[in-house]
Design brief:
heterotrimer; A alpha+beta (about 375); B mainly alpha (about 525); C alpha+beta (about 180); A: alpha+beta; Immunoglobulin-like; Cytochrome Bc1 Complex, Chain D, domain 2; 5-stranded mixed beta sheet; elongated; B: about 525 residues; mainly alpha; Cytochrome C Oxidase, Chain A; 2 strands; about 65% helix
């Protein structure tokens, strides 16, 4: 019986080993078999790492003592060895000793922990503020004072997730628009959410804070080294909780200044693009890529539906343009799961997505909508 | 009062006998353990490799939610109630529980509640998918329609626990044999007395929080909805005010079981009985003032974080006292390692490991990196699986011969143990690593650096699952064809339960025994 | 104990324990939420600001200023455009200041919004007083219309010196469906 179990285990491990390798693109780019917390790139992250290791070693020491005594007694005080049972069954002195000694150890542990916590809560003035809003299932970053804001979506393809393409080294930890910050500046993060509770977590920065709808939380980081730091949402927030990562790119100040200047220019360019008249094929092609990032998760990668209704043959996508625009721009008034994408996508993107949905998957409406019409639709109130 | 049990299904439907009801609780809890285990295997099968291969993310969230709910409310809690039903009256020399008819009701509403909960898997929108901790607004505004049945099921399970707890307190306080003072009771009875008080105090709070949810969802209130002036964080405070004592509810009886078994197999009395009682009471008291350590990242002022950090660290002291007392019970004993002892010793070692990761989690600034990662999953599975579950298993092997009059097969028992031991460590130890390396909880797919340990964990899970089939086989084989057991079963065990025949007669201690 | 006195004792105990059960339920539903709100208001926990403030004594501290930043967040599904007319102001503690938020309903339907305030840092919340705020009431806006929403506030003169920046954010929720049900707490 043990033999069969052994053989089964062997088979499993062999298959496992083979497929584990084939699942990875470049094994050396991925840090496999990681067993510990990163030290991180901020003074706070290093303090936390130090605290973690201190407590860990205390636990190891206590474990060695307690388990040492246990293993000793299990080997020596066996009936099979002829051991005769003693009869002692209480000792007040011992009870006091092993109450006070652990208590003292806890105090020793609590002191550095308190210092680090007070440091984390330090409210010295920050150099810049970024408003982070958690959505189902993406993050929005707004640079306060700079009028730059964008959404950050998972950019790993469904093909990779569903096994039709090999997985890249940053599988599930890559986004279309990373959060870019300067190094050696105290960056304050203002964190909230637009629907359910999310949590913003980047291990290398040791920042983790819940994003709570209706409430603002704050945290901060002072990144010392340029680099790319990846994190994930850390509070169950619905079906794609595991698919809304965070990528922070820390740049030297000059590069950061160039980046943000560029971003502001992009916003200008986008405004200009909104005025442009697009060809049908341009809209359709752009719409197809936007659909994949923003709609496919709920409406299906082939428009077949899923959590959301199918786009293929949809009454809305084959109905009046105004109704289609309304639900995409303003969301559904009856179902909170269909968000108001007017706030999340540019007019160009919305025009593209709506055009795509009306013509793909056999819908073939033959019509299209220009970004300027989307803008007019959004502005018809103002 | 000396007639035997009724015949057929009526016996089980209408019984007010603590042994019958204990048996039903134990079989029910084992069935729920297997059901919750199947959900776990769906999870581990999907997490075997990166990528989505088997289930959709929405269904995965239903699996994690149902796994937690079924294990906590369907497996662990009813199993301990089953052990209490069987053993507490015999241990105190009472003929039955104080409220035998309520006892029947406490059991029978459970299969109803869990049938309803399980049926949500087939409902439109699927089963509850918001985690067993069901935070608002994911569990209110954004919940599937089945949430209402979830709330109803929780109310029923809560009622069952509350009635059971009242019964246990009344039994222990009022029905002890003459001479059995409180400080002469076996520790299992003490731990259940304290657990029962915890249940009475906090299950109504759970009922309160799901009622407030129900009102937010259906009756337009805004307890947890910011739009109406409410606060999602209030949910977390009220939930964890229940939730933390709840996890002690799931471990204190385990302490009692292990405190019965180790002295028997060390052939030495339990060391420090009085301290063990005080330590248990301290743990129970402290469990009320630590709840927000589950909420360190919610945005609490530093004074709150510090308070909850200190209070949580403090619980390590009485818990450590208990571990030291068990080890000292073993020390200079004359030990043999039959199956109950194997499970009990593994309990002491592995529960302590779970305690270490708990201490690490208590350190609030470090918790910013641990919270909502697999490090937490590793922690609570270590205290629940080789903790609660192993103690229940130990208790079953220890007392089964008394219940059915037959010995289990020792080789098969040891095989079960080693399979379970290997399986659980393969499953849960690597979770410490992936959690520290950055893997969050409750995700159906993960980045490539977590792949290797996840694969090992999944293999371990299936091995652990197979071990439970072995357990089932052992129990059935024992009941049907085990060698007849003696009254004492073990070598000079302490306790009134060993003074009655094996199998225990349908009615025991109709006349109270003399306790010196 | 004889059997009947045991029964009586059990009966009494059961009633007492049931009383505890009922009491804990009442505590959870009727006492914990208001207790939490009071605690939050008194300590500024969670960034909750208080209700309408009646200014008692106006003593302006001109020796220092505090920067008050304004944020606007739309809850998902709320399509209004919503933003502060200024991103921040400098105020003296004790000085009353008025600013406006601009809201606009781009849909064709009449809607009702509710703005929920939140302040960071938390310890500043108890020093941030609103004498007039659009967040005190639900805001109806017919389809296609805009509105200027006023906010009048005072930063308390006793605010600790280390607090130099207060960030006030409003999250705007769509409460059109709720209007017919119970009013805002």
């Amino acid at each position: 019986m043990l033999n069969t179990v052994g053989r089964l285990l062997g088979c499993l491990l062999a298959t496992a080993g083979a497929s584990a390798f084939s699942a990875q693109a470049t094994a050396d780019e991925v840090q496999r078999w990681g067993v510990n917390m990163p030290q991180g790139v901020t003074p706070v992250s290093r303090e936390i790492y130090g605290l973690h290791m201190d407590i860990f070693w205390w636990c190891v020491a206590i474990g060695v003592v307690v388990f040492g005594v246990m293993f000793y007694t299990m080997i020596v005080h066996r009936k099979a060895n002829g051991a005769k049972a003693a009869n002692f069954h209480e000792s007040t002195a011992l009870e006091i000793l092993w109450t006070l000694v652990p208590f003292a150890i806890l105090i020793v542990m609590a002191i550095p922990a308190t210092k680090t916590l007070l440091n984390i809560y330090d409210t010295k003035e920050a150099d810049m503020d970024i408003l982070i809003t958690g959505y189902q299932w993406k993050w929005k970053y707004e640079y306060m004072g700079d009028d730059v804001s964008f959404f950050s979506n998972l950019s790993t393809s469904r093909d990779e997730i569903e096994g039709r393409a090999p997985k890249g080294p940053n599988y599930l930890l890559e986004v279309d628009e990373p959060l870019v910050i300067p190094v050696k500046k105290k960056v304050r993060f203002l964190i909230t959410a637009a629907d359910v509770i999310h949590a913003w977590w980047v291990p290398d920065l040791a920042v983790k804070k819940d994003a709570i709808p209706g409430f603002m939380n704050e945290s901060w980081a002072y990144v010392e080294e340029p680099g790319v730091y990846r994190g994930q949402c850390a509070e169950l927030c619905g079906k794609d909780h595991g698919f809304m990562p965070i990528v922070v790119e820390a740049l030297p100040q000059a590069d950061y200044d160039a980046w943000i200047a560029n971003k502001k220019q992009e916003a200008e360019k986008l405004k200009a693009l909104t005025e442009k008249t697009f060809e049908f094929d341009e809209l359709y092609a752009l719409g197809e890529t936007r659909y994949a990032t923003s709609c496919a998760a709920c409406h299906g990668s082939a428009g077949e539906g899923g959590v959301g209704p199918a786009i293929k043959g949809s009454a809305i996508a084959t109905g009046a343009m105004a109704g289609h625009l309304d639900i995409v721009v303003n969301g559904s008034s009856t179902n909170p799961m269909m968000a108001a994408f007017g706030a999340q996508l540019s007019e160009v993107d919305i025009a593209a997505v709506v055009t795509f949905q009306r013509n793909a998957y056999g819908n073939n409406m033959g019509d299209s909508v220009q970004p300027i019409d989307v803008l007019k639709f959004k502005q018809q109130a103002q | 009062m000396a007639h035997g049990p009724a015949k057929g299904i009526s016996r089980w439907l209408f019984t007010t006998n603590h042994k019958d009801i204990g048996t039903m609780y134990l079989w029910f809890s084992f069935a729920m353990f297997l059901l919750g285990g199947v959900f776990a295997l769906v999870i581990r099968a999907e997490l075997f490799e990166p990528g989505m291969q088997i289930v959709e993310p929405e269904f995965f969230n239903q699996m994690t939610t149902m796994h937690g709910l079924v294990m906590v409310f369907g497996a662990v809690m009813p199993a301990f109630v089953g052990l209490a039903n069987w053993m507490v009256p015999m241990m105190i020399g009472a003929p039955d529980m104080a409220l035998p008819r309520m006892n029947n009701w406490s059991f029978w509403i459970l299969p109803f509640a869990f049938a309803m909960l399980a049926s949500t898997l087939l409902m439109e929108g699927g089963a509850p998918n918001f985690g067993w901790t069901f935070y608002a607004p994911l569990s209110t505004t954004y919940a599937p329609p089945s949430v209402t049945f979830f709330i109803f099921a929780v109310h029923i399970m809560g009622a069952s626990s509350i009635m059971g707890a009242i019964n246990i307190v009344a039994t222990i306080l009022n029905m002890r044999a003459p001479g059995m003072t409180l400080m002469k009771m076996p520790l299992f009875v003490w731990t259940w007395l304290i657990t029962a008080y915890l249940l009475i105090a906090v299950m109504p709070v759970l009922a309160g929080v799901v009622t407030m949810m129900l009102m937010d969802i259906h009756f337009g209130t805004s307890f947890f909805d910011a739009a109406g002036g409410g606060d999602p964080v209030l949910f977390q405070h009220v939930f964890w005010f229940f939730g933390h004592p709840e996890v002690y509810i799931m471990i204190l009886p385990a302490f009692g079981v292990v405190s019965a078994i180790i002295p028997t197999f060390a052939r030495k009395p339990l060391f420090g009985y009085a301290s063990m009682v005080y330590a248990t009471a301290s743990i129970a008291f402290l469990s009320f003032i630590v709840w927000a350590h589950h909420m360190f990242t919610v945005g609490m002022p530093v004074a709150g974080e510090l308070f909850f950090m200190y209070a949580t660290m403090l619980i390590a002291v009485p818990t450590g006292v208990k571990v030291f007392n068990w080890v000292t019970t073993m020390f200079k004993g004359s030990m043999t390692f039959e199956t109950p002892m194997l499970f009990s010793v593994a309990f002491v070692i592995l529960f302590t490991i779970g305690g270490f990761s708990g201490l690490m989690l208590a350190i609030a600034p470090a918790d910013f990196q641990y919270h909502d990662t697999y490090f937490v999953v590793a922690h609570f599975h270590y205290v629940l699986v080789p903790g609660a579950i192993f103690s229940i298993t130990a208790g079953v092997y220890y007392w089964l011969p008394k219940w059915c009059g037959r010995m289990y097969n020792e080789t098969m028992g040891k095989t079960h143990f080693w399979m379970a031991f290997l399986g659980l460590n393969l499953t849960f130890f690597p979770m410490h690593f992936v959690g520290l390396a950055g893997m969050p909880r409750r995700i159906p797919d993960y980045a490539l650096q977590f792949a290797d340990f996840n694969m090992i964990a999944s293999i371990g899970a299936f091995l652990f699952g197979a071990a439970q089939i072995m357990f089932l086989f052992n129990v059935i084989a024992t009941i049907r064809a085990g060698k007849p057991a003696t009254d004492e079963v073990w070598e000079e065990p302490d306790g009134l339960e060993w003074t009655v025949p094996s199998p225990a007669p349908y009615h025991t201690f109709a006349v109270p025994p003399e306790v010196k | 104990m004889n059997q009947s006195s045991r029964h009586r004792s059990t009966h009494r105990l059961t009633l007492k324990l049931t009383g505890v059960v009922v009491g804990m339920f009442v505590f959870a539903v009727w006492i914990m939420p208001p207790l939490y709100d009071v605690f939050c208001e008194v300590t500024g926990l969670n960034g909750k600001t208080g209700d309408q403030y009646q200014a008692v004594e106006v003593r302006v501290d001109r020796s220092r200023t505090v920067t008050v930043q304004f944020l606007a967040v739309n809850n998902e599904g709320m399509p209004w455009s919503f933003e502060p007319e200024l991103s921040s102001v400098e105020v003296h503690p004790g000085e009353e200041m008025e600013i406006r938020y601009l809201a606009s309903n781009p849909t064709t339907a009449d809607m009702v919004g509710q703005a929920i305030p939140s302040v960071v840092p938390f310890k500043a919340a108890e020093y941030f007083h609103k004498t007039e705020c659009f967040c005190f009431n639900q805001q109806p806006l017919p389809g296609g219309k805009s509105a200027e929403l006023p906010l009048r506030f005072i930063v308390d003169q006793d605010i600790p010196a280390q607090v130099k920046t207060i960030t006030l954010s409003y999250t705007l929720f769509d409460v059109t469906d709720r209007v017919s049900l119970a009013s805002v707490n």
